[in-house]
Amino acid sequence: MHKTVSDAVTTPTGRQGKAFHLLWAGETVSLFGTQITLVALPLTAVLVLGASGPQMGLITAAGWLPVVLLGLIAGAWSDRRDQRRTMIFCNVCRAVLIGAVPLLSSLGLLTVPVLLGLAFVTGCFSVFFDVAYQTLVPLTVGSDGLARANSRLEMSRSFAQLLGPTAAGFLVVQFSAPGALAVDAASFAVSAACILALTPLSLRQKVSTPAPGRGVRGLRADLAEGLRFVVGHRPILLVIVAGAAANLFTAGLMALHVLFAARDLQLSPRVIGVCLAAEGAAALIGSALTARVIRRWGEPRTVLAGLALLTCGGFILAATTPAWSWAGFAAAQFAFGFSSPLINIALVTLRQRLTPEGVLGRVNAVARVGIMSSLPIGSALAGAASGLLTNQGALGVCAVGLAVVLAVAARPLLGVGRAG
């Protein structure tokens, strides 16, 4: 396996420590706002606009489609531009777009097509932000500090998952579903301010700057270099294929679970928020344990453990009935939450460690496109399946699909571990 050459210390200190903590603080606030949107946006579609299952699938797909269309370009852009400026610009734009939802709703101008468009454009800026973010983190801590840094970031995500949905349920009840989205808009503004305070001098090396005179031809060459690296690196390629297959069915679960809870299980927004908070509690526990699990089992086995828990959560959700609605829904969210840091931290840490810094942005982008390209497809297909079957039937299909992926991917992923 390829090794990343680095002289970084194991923990961020001095200016590097300040850089990471600024980045961490801004992302923590933004993650909290995002968790509110993950509850308030689908509830806006269901409760305010009366969206159907197929429409919910399309709204979810619209948010993921930019990853497929722009992911590779975002990677090359990240390696050729100042990541800080890219992230600040994207956060300002996302604040405006998310803030437009409550405004349009109050004016009676919000419709399902408008919500689709806003989700798509917001997703475009998210693609550029996320690739730049993953590229910037190693510059604040170095290779040896990545597992710890990623664990801290995942722990922030877990705290947001714990507190955000409960807050979202309260905000939806008090101010309406569209009104709750104003909190996410404000969180993007706070994140932009934190990144603005992150100076290049605080990083382990200078952030990327434009390569002079390369133009479109140079951009194509950059994209081709990233693709060649991934295609020629069998461990990363195997992880991407397994992740894409799992995401095909995970997207279906995520597209339909709030609709299923609100319509089929008849849960109120406040109860839905509390149940979704179980995902955050589990993710918090998982975040605290994942670095230790990776040290003992290695990244590939950690990913498999996460996939197994994710599959269990899918079956629990599909089997939930109104007789035990909140308990089944909360149990499924707990399984989803515990699996998330196991999969995310292991995948990101493995990819960052194996990739040279010069192509890290492009490789991050190729991996994101490969792993996440199935998300819009899975969301749309699950929405269509809910129209042909039922919401519960479509969830059952997704759970069975995850079980098949786990069975097929086990041996190749274990082979990656032996190769390492």
Structure, described:
With 420 residues, the chain is an all-alpha fold. It has a single domain, classed as Growth Hormone, Chain: A (Up-down Bundle), CATH 1.20.1250.20. Helices cover 84% and strands 0% of the residues. It contains 14 helices and no strands. α2 crosses α7, α8 packs antiparallel against α14 and α9 packs antiparallel against α10. The N terminus is likely disordered.
Which keywords apply here?
disordered N terminus; 420 residues; globular; Growth Hormone, Chain: A; mainly alpha
CATH architecture: Up-down Bundle
**Number of DSSP helical runs:** 14
- Alpha-carbon Rg, integer: 20 Å
Number of domains: 1
Domain Major facilitator superfamily (MFS) profile: 236-420
Subcellular location: Cell membrane
Keywords: Cell membrane, Membrane, Transmembrane, Transmembrane helix
Pfam families: MFS_1
Give a brief rundown of this model.
Helices cover 84% and strands 0% of the residues. The protein has helices at residues 14-48, 53-80, 83-106, 112-141, 146-175, 177-196, 215-231, 234-264, 269-297, 299-319, 325-354, 360-372, 374-388, 391-419. Helix 8 (234-264) packs antiparallel against helix 14 (391-419).
